[in-house]
Write a structure and sequence with these properties.
Helix content: 10-25%
Oligomer: single chain
Strand order of the largest sheet: 1-2-3-4-5
Strand content: 35-45%
Radius of gyration: 13 Å
Order of helices and strands: EEEEEH
Length: 102
C-alpha cells in the first residue's frame, strides 16, 4: 500500500525542481528531479529514508527522462504540461526504487 505525503514543483536558481514523497510498504521514498538548462547540472534520483537521513536508491540520467526538454525559461502557461512530465518521471524513479528495495 502506498500513500502520497508531499508533492512540490517549483522554479528556483534557474532550475525546475520536482519533489515527491510517498510512503510505501513501511518505507518513505523521495523522488527528486532537478532540471537545469544544462544536462550535467540536472538530476533524477530516488531516496529511501532510514529514520535519520535520505539514502540514494536509484538514479537515472536526465537524458532518459521525459522532462529532458523542459527549460527553466518556459512560460507559466506550460506549467501543467511540464508538471505532468515530472510526475511521470517520478513514477519511474519510485517504481525502480521499489523493485530494488523489494
Amino acid at each position: 500500500m502506498q500513500r502520497e505525503i508531499d508533492i512540490r514543483f517549483y522554479n528556483r536558481s534557474q532550475s525546475w525542481h520536482f519533489v515527491r514523497i510517498q510512503e510505501w510498504d513501511g518505507h518513505k521514498l523521495k523522488a527528486s528531479i532537478c532540471r537545469n538548462a544544462y544536462d550535467n547540472q540536472s538530476s533524477a534520483k530516488c531516496f529511501k529514508f532510514d529514520g535519520n537521513k535520505w539514502n540514494l536508491v536509484f538514479s537515472m540520467p536526465i537524458q532518459d527522462c521525459k522532462c529532458k526538454d523542459v527549460s527553466y525559461v518556459m512560460k507559466e502557461d506550460r506549467y501543467p504540461k511540464m508538471q505532468e512530465l515530472f510526475l511521470l518521471d517520478s513514477e519511474t524513479l519510485l517504481e525502480k526504487a521499489k523493485t530494488i528495495i523489494d
